[in-house]
Every structure is written in C-alpha cells, then in structure tokens.
Design brief:
CATH superfamily: P-loop containing nucleotide triphosphate hydrolases
CATH architecture: 3-Layer(aba) Sandwich
CATH topology: Rossmann fold
Structural class: alpha/beta
Distance between the termini: 9 Å
Shape: globular
Number of domains: 1
C-alpha cells in the first residue's frame, strides 16, 4: 500500500553537492525520454542571477525560501515522467522532504566526504565551501544531513566508483519495481 498518496512516475534525485544529481538527471532524461528539471537552475532563472549571488544578497534562508517555493510549484503541477534534480540542501526543511516524496520516487545519491571534496574543490560557485577547511565543512554537513536524506529517500545509491550510466540503470530498475508495486 502506498502511504504517500497517488504515486506519480517521476524520479527525484537528492544528495549532497558533487554527488552527480545533474549529471545523472541528464543521463536518465536521455535513457528514459523524460523531461528533466534542475531546481537550482529554476531558482537562478527566476532570480535572474546565480545561486552565489542569491546567497550573498538574501543569505541561506532566502535561498531556502526560494527552493521551497520551487518545490511547491512543481508539486502543484502534478508532473509525470519527469526527472527532478534538487540542490544538496533541499532536504533541510521538513516541508521540502514531504514535497519531495509527494513528487515521486526519491533517490539519494551518496558519496563520501573525500569524493565530494575532489569533485567540488575547484568550483568557486559553491557558497558553503568558501572556507579555510572545505573538507571539514563537507564532512560535518554530510553527517548533519544524512538522517534527512535517509528519511525522504526510497533508494540510496553509493555513487563512488560508478559512472553515470551504471547509476542511471540502477535507478531505472529500482524505480520500475517501485512503480509496479504501487499499482
């Protein structure tokens, strides 16, 4: 029995920055022919500026408000056959975690702190990593957020050592089983 209400056949990608949500989202789009939405890109389009600029002008709370608004809008659209890649902190608010599950099959792309650091260390567009010790920030945030990722995900995939196609195939097979069991 489905406890999330009527199930829609969308795949929602969550996980920390650098885990490959956008890359895997594009690969799932290619393989399934679904639409693909990146919530960070939607926020940037609506604000007409970068996430870094939003953080500078409105702080993290302002950015999180925008993120919640986007998730509410997506849930109201009753999307079907859509891949949604979220920002790494989308799970920080309880309302967002509920919205993510409402939107569809939630897949948590997991990576360890060192993998995240290696993937993000040269990117200057990551506001929370502009610190003296980004490795420590990554490790702390991963530890803090893990229970929230776990709470709202249907599936967790350890992405370290896997390529985008391997990850996408695993998601597709698991999602098919999930959706079939909801019918």
């Amino acid at each position: 029995m489905n406890q999330d209400g009527p199930q829609v056949q969308n795949i929602i990608l969550i996980g920390f920055m650098g885990c490959g949500k956008s890359t895997v989202g594009r690969e799932l789009k290619r393989m399934l022919g679904f639409s693909w939405i990146d919530t960070d890109s939607v926020i940037e389009q609506q604000a007409q500026c970068s996430i870094t600029d939003i953080f500078a002008r409105e702080g993290e709370e302002g950015f999180r408000d925008r993120e919640t608004d986007v998730l509410r809008d997506l849930a109201a659209q009753q999307l079907r056959s859509t891949i949604i890649s979220t920002g790494g902190g989308a799970i920080l608010r309880e309302e967002n975690r509920a919205l993510l599950r409402q939107l569809g099959y939630v897949v948590w792309l997991r990576a360890n702190a060192e993998t995240v650091y290696q993937r993000t260390r040269k990117n200057r567009d990551r506001p929370i990593l502009q610190t003296q010790n980004p490795r420590a920030v990554i490790a702390d945030l991963l530890q803090q957020r893990e229970p929230m990722y776990r709470e709202c995900s249907h599936l967790a995939i350890e992405v370290s050592g896997l390529n985008r196609t391997e990850i996408a195939v695993g998601i597709i097979e698991s999602a098919r089983y999930h959706f079939a069991s909801q019918e």
